[in-house]
Amino acid sequence: MTATISAIADPDHARAAPSHPDPYPYYGRLARERPFFRDDANGWWVAASAASVTEVLTSVICLTRPLSEPIPEALRGGAAAEIFGRLVRLRDDEARGKLKEAVTKALQSVDLGQVAGLARTRAAELDSELGRTLDEDKTTQFMFALPVQVVAQLLGVRRERFGDTMGWLGDYGAAAAAAGTGIPALTPELLARGHRGAQALFDLVSAIRNDDEQRGLLLDALMREARRVGCEDERDVIANAIGYMVQGYAAMASSIGLTLLALARRPALRAQIAADRTLLRPFIQEVLRCDTVTSSTFRFMARDGEIAGHKLRRGEMIIVLLAAANRDPALNPDPDRFDIAREDRKYLEFGAGAHACPADKVVPLIVEIAVDHLLARGVPLERLEASLSYAASGHVRTPLFKR
Q1: What is the pLDDT of residue 248?
Q2: Whole-structure pTM value
């Protein structure tokens, strides 16, 4: 991706790529040379080209979870299963269509100007809470705190509960990822924390739902849209309200961190942005294409069928490499070139088809405000590379900075 990263060995396989220092030569080769193939050593299929990734994401026979296990067996019997099994992004049942419409319409109804105002106010408050001097650790804390706390505030979570809420989200997210992907390894302690965090989140949002004075505009909108489309299960509404925070917890933090890295690695562009802040918006869009947060996702065959000219069997798993598709020259000419003036930019960060993420306007806005604030505060860009590691994950590319 950049000249600052020396040549290193490829990832061992597709699921090792998100936490690899530089997986993009590997992704690019797969997109060009192995658009859709079976990884016999690991027992899964891989979609890498833009065409095959789009085909999988839009196919009615490719499900987000296997029919035999809609909820990971390890999560069953606890509160984490209650959230996991109700999230619309992980469902392909009859209720999914109406619920997805409610979740999407509610998010789209929120005024972006109000979101921006909340984000700027919360960023200023975090300055006081984290301390005026930014170092690598505080940069990481800020990039995780701001986005999820803005979303929490939109739901009605009070400021004094932000710390607890983030802890519960982290515990639930770690357990759900471990149970669903095996990365990190699921331990009894991790699972227990995940169930406790999930129950605490459910209790918190349930209480807010029933409090007309505390309930935020996003939760209000979700409840209204759910009624409109005929979603009668209030626990579905609560779980998907939590889902807004779950999605934002790692994804937006990662996007902020990857944008900061891209700025650190490109001093000429950084100087241009310092002189003209309006360039930050297309810069972020190019980061979303070039250094993709959601590196990959899963799909499972609902029945025997053909995908990208290959015959697959019911239950087989496909690793869908969004990051590789974004480096496919068929999607973007000269895809390895970082170009904020790129015409007709295309990327699959937010997916495609029935499970496309509806946050394609909200996420870049919050990321832009966060990065703009950090630049004004004097974020130590020159030290980020030396302090960089990537969180262990089979799907999400999350940079961490630590002194």
Answers
A1: 84
A2: 0.95
